[in-house]
Design goal:
Largest sheet: 2 strands, antiparallel
Shape: elongated
Number of strands: 2
Oligomer: single chain
Distance between the termini: 22 Å
Helix content: 25-40%
Length: 80
């Protein structure tokens, strides 16, 4: 999906994803929007520090960027 290989925990999860992939796809194609906005890079987010915000999946480069997002999500596009 979107040129990425996706792995699933089970066939059920795979089928749910295939039924509506964009519902499950991370914001910014999995890039960390905090590091992108602050440093201008397009650093790949780490799924281990992802959050669900307003029904969307967001990945961050590390816990620090995750916490900055959670403190002020609207600053980083969290009002989408």
């Amino acid at each position: 999906h979107h040129g990425q290989t996706v792995c699933f925990f089970s066939e059920e999860h795979r089928q749910r994803f295939l039924a509506d992939p964009d519902r499950f796809w991370p914001m910014a194609n999995g890039r960390c929007l905090v590091s992108s906005k602050e440093r201008g890079d397009a650093e790949l987010g780490d799924p281990r520090v992802g959050v669900i915000w307003r029904g969307k999946l967001w990945f961050f480069s590390d816990r620090e960027t995750q916490q900055r997002f959670l403190a002020m999500p609207q600053q980083y596009g969290g009002d989408l």
